[in-house]
Amino acid sequence: MKKIVFFLGIFCTFLSYAQNNGTINGNILDLEMNNEPLIMAYVELQNTNIRTETNFHGNFELNNIKPGDYNLVIRYLGYETRIIPVSLKESRQINIVEGLLAKKLDLQETELDIVTKETATEGKFGAKK
């Protein structure tokens, strides 16, 4: 009987601990392409090991996060990185819908001077007898 009470106490402790943690979920969109979802965008809480990638619909979910203030970092190859401050309260869920813009390439016109060098060679051509 003591073992049952002991394990029940431990179970309740873990259950109450899990309830204090929160969730951040959301949707990442491509602002360059009519708000289409960005597939496999990288989403992480800065300075933690909590990270994920968006699914086929651009959705992500970060679970079991301790309450506190975080920076949510969103990256996608060829797009500007976004850093969003979030404040997570106990047992709360935050829903974020965010869009990314493509990086602008700074193309500068450069004028090149092409110099070619011709070399002259002299030689005697003939057949030996």
List the helices and strands and how they pair.
Elements: H1 2-20, E1 22-30, E2 36-37, E3 42-45, E4 51-53, E5 59-65, E6 68-75, E7 82-88, E8 93-100
Parallel strand pairs: 1-8
Antiparallel strand pairs: 1-2, 1-5, 3-4, 3-6, 6-7
Counted by DSSP, the helix tally is 1
What is the gyration radius calculated from CA atoms?
Answer: 30 Å
| CATH homology superfamily | Immunoglobulins
* Weakly predicted, low-confidence segments: none
Terminal-residue CA separation: 118 Å
- The second-level CATH architecture is Sandwich
CATH topology: Immunoglobulin-like
Largest sheet: 4 strands, mixed
What amount of the residues lies in strands? 35-45%
Strand and helix order: HEEEEEEEE
The pLDDT mean sits at 85
Question: What proportion of the residues is helical, as a percent range?
Answer: 10-25%
Strand segment count: 8
By secondary-structure content and strand pairing, the structural class works out as mainly beta
CATH class: Mainly Beta
Outline: elongated
Total tally of structural domains = 1
